[in-house]
Write a structure and sequence with these properties.
binds flavin-adenine dinucleotide, Rossmann fold, seven-stranded antiparallel β-sheet, 2 domains, 7 helices, alpha/beta, six-stranded mixed β-sheet
Length: about 325
């Protein structure tokens, strides 16, 4: 989600598409050794526009000194105002997937990966108790009236009419992958690779019969760095399933600029170009001869390598893939 394009809603008109929903922690449930599910509740959530799939929201975490009071609510350009807030008082923003939402009950669920005390979000969730407050920035159902309401909701999964689907991600992509699988038509076919820290992180998931879900636990493969298990599994599957690259595939890869993940966001979904690349202007995904749609999300370095492998080395058309860097090893999201 490009925060700079988003807007916050005031309680008075004119309404805009994104709102800062005030919520409190209603339940905390441990799902696996690395996952905590937090159920948030708030009256405004009755108006949360839930689209499911890999829908993302921004969480506004309370500042140690000023809580949530400095976060600019009720103005359209909240992002600029937030950036201008002096750093000691500025609330931290982080992006998460809506694992589920029940507007009638005014609830949403977020599944957090707990990765020690290394960052503000993991620290917040590790210490969270019932009643803790934060803000969720997401689409307001009262204002969503654009042509493509699903897109407004911040979901990217869009396989078009692809015959086969490849989903691949690390633990941060588990909530999105589980939601996508639950929403897939029963006749869907495909392959899913999910890298997780330990075997105890394998979660129950409902998938169509033609979709194989493969959980890859790092603790069962000692010596491999984060992302390596996923990388190997995807490469092996793609090499088997996808024929050698065509001339068209090579031409496409010629335009594949390198993304500097230290400075740029790795984010390319059909119809959009990654920073520094030519916009392709392609609105509809998944129409190539391969009839494969790939969705990959997780640590940016790993996803960047897989993107190169798929588009440059394997000839998968870039309009048939969505690549999303969800976090960067050794770097805090700002
Ligand atoms: C669209 C989108 C959806 C996402 N959905 C989810 C989700 O549903 N659940 C979820 O848990 N995460 C999700 N993420 C990832 C999450 O936003 C990042 O992991 C974020 O960096 C966590 O913030 P933090 O404050 O804990 O750590 P930061 O302050 O950002 O980073 C501190 C340190 O921790 C490291 N780090 C960050 N994340 C991880 C991790 N997962 N494992 C190990 N080290 C890490 C960083 O490299 C850095 O060294 C999503 C990200 C995006 C862009």
């Amino acid at each position: 989600m490009s925060a700079s394009n988003h807007t916050s809603v005031a309680t008075t008109p004119p309404k805009v598409a994104y709102a800062a929903f005030a919520v409190t922690v209603a339940r905390i449930e441990r799902l696996g050794s690395s996952f905590l599910r937090v159920t948030f509740r708030g009256d405004d959530l009755a108006h949360f526009h839930f689209v499911g799939l890999d829908q993302r929201v921004k969480l506004v975490l309370p500042n140690d000194e000023s809580g949530l009071s400095t976060f600019p609510r009720g103005i359209e350009d909240w992002y600029s105002a937030w950036r201008e807030t002096p750093e000691p008082q500025r609330c931290v923003l982080r992006t998460y997937t809506v694992r589920d939402a029940r507007p009638a009950l005014r609830e949403i669920d977020i599944d957090f990966v707990v990765h020690g005390e290394t960052g503000p979000a993991t620290r917040w969730v590790s210490n969270a108790v019932i009643g803790d407050e934060l803000l969720v920035i997401g689409p307001d159902a009262r204002t969503v009236d654009l042509d493509d309401p699903r897109r407004v909701g911040g979901a990217e999964f869009n396989p078009g009419n692809a015959g086969r689907i490849l989903l691949a991600g690390d633990e941060t992509a588990v909530p999105a992958i589980c939601s996508i699988l639950e929403a897939m038509p029963r006749k869907a076919r495909g392959q899913v690779f999910i890298e997780i820290p330990t075997k105890a992180d394998i979660l129950p998931v409902v998938a169509p019969g033609g979709v194989t879900v493969c959980w890859l636990a790092r603790d069962e493969r000692p010596g491999l760095a984060h992302g390596e298990v996923l990388d190997r599994a995807v490469r092996a599957w793609v090499s088997e399933m996808v024929p050698a690259p065509t001339a068209e595939g090579h031409r496409d890869s010629d335009r594949l600029a390198d993304v500097d993940i230290d400075h740029d966001i790795l984010w390319e979904v059909p119809g959009e170009a990654a920073p520094g690349e030519e916009p392709q202007g392609v609105a509809e995904p998944a129409t190539s001869k391969l009839s494969l749609y790939a969705w990959l999300a997780g640590e940016a370095g790993c996803i960047k390598d897989l993107r190169r492998f798929l588009v440059r080395d394997s000839g998968v058309h870039r309009t048939d893939v969505a690549f999303m860097g969800y976090w960067r090893l050794g770097r805090s999201e700002n």
